[in-house]
Design brief:
mainly alpha, 6% strand, 263 residues, two-stranded antiparallel sheet, globular, 12 helices, Alpha-Beta Plaits, 2 domains
């Protein structure tokens, strides 16, 4: 989260309108030229890669990950639709029932008149700020608020006023949220009457399944045949689809689909 804040400061020619960080992908809605948007994404990815290399010793962690950049026109309510699509990712993944309940993004940033609570950047020492942001970059506005979870609140650096001017009213934003393609996907899943389990429930169950079925500690320790059997168990015990299996197992959608095809 704090790398988004840092990159927002380092990219003054780009306005962050909305974003969400999911377990295996991220979404941004940015206002600026394509070149500046590409630079924003690349530098954000570099910061995160450096952190992962320092923490886990993983080299080139994100270099091979694809980036899909699409130009959003300003007519036909396209910005509103793009923002709603991004906001609803956590809801479509059955993690929460409303975007405002997912803290890792802008779900609670708009039409929220509650005064931000927390300590300010200016109240922290340089060393403490470096520890908080996992970065040597400390040139952040002193009035920015850091929440109790340890990240700078998105409304400090997101162009909230621009987004609210586009939607004009909370009810209109809710309309776009409820009619977005992500919302429709969730409603379609509900109509199939499959039980919906949050990712956290599956993440808690996978280690127990690995130990109980294969005497292994985690999914990464399984062979291909064992992995195929595990996804079968997840599929039938929790009615999870390939996308949710990919998220909770930490694999690509293609790999999850291949394991399901082995069933």
């Amino acid at each position: 989260m704090n790398y988004v804040a840092i990159q927002a400061v380092c990219s003054p020619d780009v306005a962050v309108l909305a974003f969400i960080l999911m377990s295996n992908h991220v979404h941004f809605v940015l206002l600026g030229t394509r070149r500046n948007a590409e630079e924003f994404i690349e530098r954000f990815r570099q910061r995160y890669s450096i952190h992962m290399r320092r923490k886990y010793g993983i080299k080139e962690f994100l270099r091979g990950n694809p980036v899909d950049i699409r130009v959003v026109p300003f007519d036909n309510e396209a910005p509103e639709k793009a923002i709603a699509y991004v906001q609803m990712n956590s809801v479509a993944a059955n993690i929460c029932s409303h975007p405002s309940q997912w803290p890792w993004g802008t779900g609670n940033s708009f039409f929220n008149r509650n005064k931000p609570a927390g300590r300010t950047v200016g109240s922290m020492s340089r060393r403490a700020l470096c520890r908080l942001t996992h970065s040597g970059f400390t040139d952040l506005p002193g009035e920015w608020v850091i929440c109790d979870d340890g990240f700078i609140l998105p409304e400090m650096y997101v162009d909230v006023s621009f987004v609210e001017s586009r939607f004009r009213h909370p009810n209109r934003m809710n309309y776009f949220l409820n009619t977005s393609s992500k919302a429709k996907k969730r409603f379609e899943s509900a109509s199939e009457r499959f039980p919906a389990f949050k990712d956290q429930i599956l993440l808690g169950a996978i280690p127990d399944l690995c130990r109980g079925l294969f005497q292994k500690a985690s999914f990464k320790d399984l062979s291909d045949d064992e992995g195929s059997e595990l996804v079968r168990q997840i599929r039938f015990r929790f009615s999870a689809d390939a996308r949710q299996i990919a998220r909770v197992c930490g694999i690509s959608y293609e790999d999850a689909a291949k394991l399901l095809d082995r069933l």
